[in-house]
Design brief:
The chain is mainly α. It contains nine helices and two strands. Helices cover about 60% and strands about 5% of the residues. A two-stranded antiparallel sheet has the order 1-2. A hairpin with a 6-residue loop joins strand 1 (about 60) and strand 2. The longest helix has 14 residues, at about 95-110.
Length: about 160
């Protein structure tokens, strides 16, 4: 399994391989926010609709000591809000973690990228895209909620100065 970030072309292929809004919520929710799959599954409808109403694009994830604000993309927020407006508010996402991972594998297969996409790969892609956009390392730590060694090493690699001879 490859643990490197997806290219722009691979991200676009995955996007095109989404059949419905649930596919898009999974892909965009993980790719655009860096959330873990279990965090995605536990997103509450009230929080999504409140975030859309306030317009600040910061979704509250977790509770108590583990609570944090995660910036969400407009495209994810639009699709998630539409889903929760049609379904009982207060409910969580339509799939549990295992079913969402299976659905992600189906999207991956339709995109012709067998064995390339996992929730961890999408998280790494989020980190890479964020660093490339100039988001500070401390802000990324706050967004991700944890700073595992693999992501720390990735940030060091991506932010290393380039020496031109």
């Amino acid at each position: 399994m490859n643990k490197t970030a997806l290219t722009k072309e691979e991200q676009q292929a995955l996007d095109k391989a989404c059949h419905d809004d649930v596919d898009r919520m999974i892909l965009w929710g993980l790719l655009d926010t860096g959330m873990r799959i279990r965090e995605w599954c536990n997103i509450d409808g009230w929080k999504v609709l409140d975030t859309q109403k306030t317009g600040d694009n910061l979704l509250n994830i977790g509770d108590g000591k583990n609570a944090r604000k995660v910036p969400v993309s407009n495209r994810f927020l639009r699709v998630a809000a539409a889903y929760f407006q049609q379904n009982p508010v207060g409910s969580s996402m339509p799939l549990k973690a295992r079913a969402a991972e299976y659905r992600l594998r189906e999207i991956e297969a339709r995109a012709g990228m067998k064995g390339r996409v996992t929730p961890a790969t999408l998280r790494i892609t989020f980190v890479t895209n964020s660093i490339n956009r100039g988001i500070a390392e401390q802000d990324l730590r706050n967004i991700l909620g944890s700073w595992p060694l693999g992501i720390r090493k990735l940030c060091e690699e991506l932010t290393k100065p380039v020496v031109v001879k």
